[in-house]
Amino acid sequence: MFSCKSRQAVQASDPSTMAGKLKVFLNTNVDVSSWKTIMRDLRDHPRWSYVAFARDDEAPLTALSYRWDGPAFDFAKIMSTRWDSVLRDFQAKHETEILDHVHSERLKPHVAKHKKLWVDQHCIPQVEGRMGCIEVAGQLYHGPVIAAWLTTEAVDKAFAAGRAHELLGELEGWLGRGWVQQEVTARGKLVNLDAFEHFFKMGKRSRDARLTSGGESLCLLLRRMKGEKVEPIQDRIVRFYAVNEADFTVEEDRGFNIPSFADMGYEAFDIGKQPAGYKLQPEIRVHGERVAMVDANGNTIAKWFRRKALYTRA
């Protein structure tokens, strides 16, 4: 989720067409006496904060999966001196206006389309106690999800400007982050899959092998996001290996994201260091440094195979 290098400008729609001020709303049930009470309520009810143009506590929520980049870090730096003012806003009316900034401007077309967004940087106040909210944030991605700011218009603009390779790099960088692997599961419903499919189509049309293969790989992984009530075991296995090989800024965060297989009797061990009497679980095939798995759609997904593997008793 975190990177200070990725450039997202090619993915933003023209914000000048969006009217109104973006705000962060707290559900009116949130106890706004202090940051301590606010963070407690948001930990217990993570859907009680959202970004929108107007209050609607009952409407469905769409979560944004993205990685922090230059604009996001710059926004955080500016906000670091303003949280006292935000608290006063919340105490007065359970809402606060979002600072005008390129980072917040690119939210506008998505809010205009989906009405309510959950965006970690805005919906989890960056104050003491936020880690409790981060630990439970995964449940927000069991519903509708927007991935990486991507729209079909942004894809068209990138190809027209000769920046398709740059956009592909941003998308692959987003998907390579550890927290994203928690967010990209079959439990969520990807609402902008059409934009990724459009990238794949444009890549094939360009006859550029890198754009074609990269677009196909993205689609294979993201087509799992169909909004199923229970994550299929095949997809849970894909997620296990994806999380283990992904990049985390804070290594301890990896543990929050690795799915459990206690119900299957599988255990995770360092590769090649499993106890006697254990064997690799049967759903995977090993090809050199890669492990191949078949997801719930019947697609073969290949991942690097370096950290841990799932084993079962022989």
Automatic annotation (TrEMBL):
- Put simply, this protein is called Uncharacterized protein
* Organism from which the protein derives: Monosiga brevicollis (Choanoflagellate)
Upper lineage ranks?
Eukaryota, Choanoflagellata, Craspedida, Salpingoecidae, Monosiga
